Amino acid sequence: MTLAITAGILVAGAVYLLLKPEMLRIILGFVLLSHAANLIIMAAGNSSRREEPFGTFTDLTNAADPLPQAFVLTAIVIAFSITVLMLVLAVTGKNDDNTSVSPPTDADDAAPQATDDAAATTPGDDAATAPTTTQEPTS
Amino acid sequence: MLPLLRNDRGPLLLLACVLTIFLSSAAAAPLGKWLGRSAGWLLALPLLAVAAILVSQFSAESALTQTVSWMPTLGVDLALRLDGLSLLFALLVLVIGAAVMFYSAKYLGKGKQSSFYVLMTLFAAAMLLLVLADNVVVLFVAWEATTLCSFFLISRSGTHAQEPAIRTLLVTAAGGLSLLAAVVTMSVVTGTTQLSEILVSSAWSDNSTFATTVAALLAVAAFTKSAQFPFQAWLPDSMVAITPVSAYLHAAAMVKAGIYLLLRFSPALDGVMLWHVLLITSGVITALIGAIAALRRYDLKELLAYSTISQLGLLVTMIGVGTEYALTAAVVHTAAHALFKSALFLFVGVIDHDAGTRDIRELATMRLNMPVTKVAVTLAALSMAGVPPLLGFISKESMFTAFLDAPGPAWIGVSVTVLTAIAAVFTFVYSGRIVFGAFGGDGSQRTVPEASPLFWGPPAFTAAAGLVFGLVPHLLDPLASAAASSAVGSEVHTHLALWHGINAALFVSLAVLTTGAVLVAYRTRLEPLVTRLRFPFSALDVVDATRAGIIETGVRLGKLSGTTSPRLHLAIPAVVVSLIAVYGATHLHTLPPIVGETSRPLDWVLVILVAAGTIATVRAQTRISAAVVTGVVGFSMTLWFFTLGAADVALTQLLVEILTLCVMVLLLRRLPRRFSVEPVRKRIPAAVIAISAGLATTFGVWALTGRRDLSPAAQYYLQEGEQTTGGANIVNTILVDFRAFDTLGELSVLGIAGVAIAALLTSRKPVAIRSADLDEDSPLADSRQNTVFVRSITRWVGPLVVIMSVILLLRGHQEPGGGFIAALIGGAGFTLLYLAAPSDTAARIRLPYLSLIGAGVVIGTGTGLLGYLEGSFLTPIHFYIFEMHFTTALIFDVGVYLSVVGVILAALNLLGRQHRLGQQHAWTSDHDTTDKNEEVSSR
Question: How high is the pLDDT of residue B192?
Answer without folding.
Answer: 85
